[in-house]
Amino acid sequence: xxxxxxxxxxxxxxxxxxxxxxxxxxxxxxxxxxxxxxxxxxxxxxxxxxxxxxxxxxxxxxxxxxxxxxxxxxxxxxxxxxxxxxxxxxxxxxxxxxxxxxxxxxxxxxxxxxxxxxxxxxxxxxxxxxxxxxxxxxxxxxxxxxxxxxxxxxxxxxxxxxxxxxxxxxxxxxxxxxxxxxxxxxxxxxxxxxxxxxxxxxxxxxxxxxxxxxxxxxxxxxxxxxxxxxxxxxxxxxxxxxxxxxxxxxxxxxxxxxxxxxxxxxxxxxxxxxxxxxxxxxxxxxxxxxxxxxxxxxxxxxxxxxxxxxxxxxxxxxxxxxxx
Length: 324
What we know:
This protein is an alpha/beta fold. The chain is 21% helix and 31% strand. The relative contact order is 0.14.
């Protein structure tokens, strides 16, 4: 299952126009990278929940070669609520569940093998964990010497963190898990509700460290979105990449594009423009002589001639410019 229902509020105003799972990076929507990773590791039948801008997601993948079905939620119901909506599909057997905004090359096959081994001893949940330097943006997992989960913390301050192992939002669930998601809870989360409940009931859950060279990032903020683009350019992640500059973009020959660059379809870039470490969304127009550094230009946005911008999200359609 790919979780794809969220609003992506940390990426507003960009996520007002394009749902977070369809955000392009490395020439594809991030959710398409996830589906390719699942396929690589033998997970070919996929279900996904949608809500915010659901039709955009469903229409995009209707034209792609994936065996994927969708469950559209009328209201957001939390991560576990979204999983509950798809449980009729998931309860057929062991299920891999992954967030729709995760950019990763984690070896799902190794995690799956570790999960199946633990299932023999009663394990019903496996969580992929990764060490992080700053715990304030992550759910933290505490395990014993055998990788069994004994505690959780949600986004603790580093000095209060019981560990520096982050929950990546990549899970393997056994069918029993869905019995513990209340049918009548309007909003129910995995990290805040389901996992603590399972722990209190004494259920066996484990957390397995991903391989040291694996890449994982939640591209749900402008800062991480740009950083992940730089990471792709630096070769830190193994992806099936496409061209980072759309063939339909019209770019003047005098424009200078340096660093990590992603240019979407139907973009117009006029003469003497300079872009460094920038992402330009569909149908944006960057006028003559503009200079942008570490910026994201929203869809159909206009960058005026000769303007200079650093560390900004530029969305002239509707909202003010926001610092990155």
